[in-house]
Fold this protein.
Amino acid sequence: MKRVVITGQGTINPLGRSVAETLEAMREGRCGIGPLEFRDVDRLAIKIGGQVKDYDPETEFNRQQIALYDRFTQFTLLAAREAIGQSGLSFGGELAARTGVVLGTSGGGLQTSDENYRSVYEEGKNRVHPFVVPKLMNNAAASHVSMSYNLKGPSFTVATACASSNHAMGLAFHLVRGGAATVMVTGGSESMLCFGGVKAWEGLRVMSKDACRPFSANRNGMVQGEGAGVFVFEEYEHAKARGAEILAEVIGFAMTSDASDIVMPSKQGAARAIRGAVEDAGIPLDAVGYINAHGTGTAANDKTECAAVADVFGAHADRLMISSTKSMHGHLIGGTGAVELLACVMALREGVIAPTIGYEEADPECALDVVPNVAREAKVDVVLSNAFAFGGLNAVLALRAA
Amino acid sequence: MSDVADKVIGIIAEQAVLDKSDVSMDQTLGDLGIDSLGLVESIFAIEEAFDIQVPFNANDPASSEFDISSVAAIVKAVEGLVAEQHA
């Protein structure tokens, strides 16, 4: 089996327009959640989110591109530009044929759906723009990345709600590890912050009206975010031969299904995925120094996740660190694992553990070291990134320092 | 029985897949086999039926302003919200 390394990373999210800006915000424990700004927000009960503010697509894309790119595709392309730029790769000939794109998203071009339903139902129009379908389809972002960079290998989109980008990155890892691709561009993107997108979540009664406070006893729900994270996964020998800078190594991945409830998480399903990733990596449990938690800030997730970690790691659960950066950027749904992987790479490369901000009150059901409120310097060699989706679909990645 | 109580019991009975006559005021939603998803659906149905906003967060049902500890408590809370609505 081939070894798989990360040679590029890029992002746009509520904390920043680049990896550098995002990591600075995470080191400072800055919050990117604030008042939502879009049409009809006054008709929502939930009025906060992790929105990418002051974003003007016209500074990044031309008119023809904007006609085809939903906001989730725009975010993907901006993150991909940074990641591929950092990798130093250009794609032609055999390498182009052996490079693909696997991206996660849950809602796809939801803003496009929302705008056009409004137009035909509310405004009574009988005609829509000709590109509505290619703009809203879930694979639009993956396809535009492949077209923009001439990537002709295995390319598709994964939709497993909140675990989408972890599933996508896990599959990209498998494709490179198994030899089906030399390079994979992978990660995820989401942009559901529009009236219909937030209204739908409101209905479930799990959203917080004031803040995302994972693991804190007074937590009262999740907060949605938007944005994208994209990585370049590359076969190790290929990266080494060209002298690429290796940011981290992907060493394990596991996915499980709870097969129990459409919204309530299961400790067993989460634990099997966590243990599976460690076993796939072939490392001892006590090698894991940091876990980037799913940590949504809901009552159900956080206590279930902590119980799963305690079950898997036993006494070592009290020595490792576990934090949720959703407290800062919100829950990016299908893109969340990708943005959170940035915190994992930061932990490995820089020895800085991103904090769980908004932590106010200890919860005996979440009695782990959640790195409350302030980033911490600590050397870690192996990290995990958890994602547990509605529908009981779990995906956990394991990374090692380069 | 008030109109409100009758309608609320109807909604709860439908969610529990029971006859209205099998729902009694002292029962809890747990007694009736209604889980968290069923509860959220019932609250939605109540909001639609009475055109009211029910203050309820599934993260912490116990500390929501809306008392869901029994069928009687729910009826009382809905009666209060309906009265406020028409005040």
In short: The two ends of chain A are 18 Å apart (CA to CA).
